[in-house]
Amino acid sequence: MATHNTRMLIIGSGPAGLSAAIYAARAGMEPIVVQGLQPGGQLTITTDVENYPGFRDVVQGPWLMEEMQAQAEHVGTRMIWDTITEIDLENGSPFRAIGDSGDEYIGDTLVIATGAQAKWLGAPGEADFNGKGVSACATCDGFFYRGKKIVVIGGGNTAVEEALYLTNHSDDVTIIHRRDEFRAEKILQDRVFANEKISVLWNKTVEEFLGDGANGLTGLRLKDTLTGEESNFETEGAFVAIGHAPATELFKGKLDMDNSGYLTVEPGTPKTALPGVFACGDVMDHVYRQAVTAAGTGCMAALDAERFLATQEFEKKEAAE
Ligand code: NDP
User: Fold this and answer.
1) What's the confidence (pLDDT) of residue 5?
2) Which atom of ligand 1 is nearest to the CA of 258?
3) 261 C-alpha vs ligand 1 centroid, how far in Å?
4) Could you tell me which residues come within 8 angstroms of residue 275 by beta carbon, excluding any fewer than 6 positions away?
5) Which member of 1, 17, 29, 128 has the lowest number of beta carbons within 10 Å of its beta carbon?
6) What is the rounded distance in angstroms from the CA atom of residue 107 to the CA atom of residue 20?
7) pLDDT digits (tens, 9 = 90+) for 31-43
């Protein structure tokens, strides 16, 4: 069991964590990235990426993350394949964490980039057609369903926003919701009801995602929650929008979170209420949730961490004089 000391400990290796690492490494902070259970994050389970700037042609999510990791390593980041299981934030900087491997990590600053994961229904066929008709991100994948008959499953802000966004690509969008009213904000609901391209199927649950190897998703088997009656609904694209779960279990009781478990930061910054602890990417952002916004906030976290250390060093020097 080893102890790793660093000026910046980064937990998470998606676009947020790796962007923080690139900036920190180039500032000479010799960051350590503890990669977590899914090295590379959510992009490693997607296929085509067409909205990350810098690439003329479609790139593959796993490839993009490999490049980002190689870039971070090239400028001096240490990547460690481990998962943090314990963290001590009580005594301020330096922060101490313990990995699943038993190794100890001590960081003068801490960048939390543990991300979030889309929630899935768990119905049969959902995983089989993931990327072949089933998606959890309209902004990422809506473009691939241009002119097709699309459904969105859910009734919260995400579901209605995704449906509205998808009308840029399709004239036939149906929201399928398990109750007879949305949970989404009224203003968003009003926009949905006023949009001719969107229909709503109330009181329906998705029992099965239907399709085949050649065509991908072709439809859904639905169940009416009031009558129990089952029916098939034809569709080529299903967007599951039933919420996201941020990976913040480790920080419960230690850092401020909103009701959905997202870390709260000082507005417009990646600063948590604890000096020296920064949060970036999807773990603190339930609105945008894009690779490029995660990368942006990762950069901000590294810059703010650098300033934090500079101030701390200045104050120590002043006190010594
Ligand atoms: P929510 O938790 O608000 O909504 C989830 C929706 O999915 C609900 O309608 C829920 O149904 C439905 N659902 C959950 N589980 C199932 C299931 N197993 N089967 C069928 N339906 C299911 O999640 P959101 O992602 O919409 O929003 C998360 C947070 O982010 C919220 O606080 C939201 O306000 C915020 N947000 C804000 C935005 C903005 O400000 N522009 C944009 C997007 C999100 P039911 O209603 O019956 O419980």
Assistant:
1) 98
2) 32
3) 13
4) 92, 93, 308
5) 1
6) 14
7) 999 999 889 988 8
